[in-house]
Design a protein that fits this description.
- The chain is mainly alpha-helical and 111 residues long.
- It has four helices and no strands.
- The protein has helices at residues 3-16, 25-29, 34-38, 48-67.
- Helix 1 packs antiparallel against helix 4 (48-67).
- The two termini are 28 Å apart.
């Protein structure tokens, strides 16, 4: 196994494989509703949706750079910190969201 292949495998493992440190990213998002993922903890802070898309975007960039692939197309427009498409306000929610059964979002690049 080449060094690049090993690094790419480790990046994949951090997303959806068993992790020594606890829940992986996919497991952390499991059960989150779209409403909860869109919740912003304070003005100027990122939502869970933005953090998850940020991780997915940089996974895409690192993979592309390590493999020498040409710039392709990420599933959403923008780069680095991609804002939610329907984000109308930066006003924080009055309290933290309560965990709910369900899925993160059908249109999420991480689901």
């Amino acid at each position: 196994m080449s060094e690049i292949t090993a690094i790419l495998d480790l990046i994949d493992q951090a997303f959806d494989h068993h992790a020594w440190h606890g829940t992986n990213l996919r497991g952390s998002l499991r059960g989150l509703s779209a409403e909860d993922a869109a919740w912003r903890p304070a003005a100027g802070r990122h939502s869970i949706w933005e953090l998850a898309v940020h991780a997915a975007y940089w996974k895409y960039v690192v993979r592309r750079r390590l493999t020498g692939e040409k710039k392709g197309s990420f599933s959403l427009e923008g780069s680095d910190w991609i804002l939610r498409p329907q984000a109308e306000t930066d006003t924080p929610a009055p309290r933290a969201p309560k965990p709910r059964p369900g899925t993160f979002s059908a249109d999420s690049p991480l689901s």
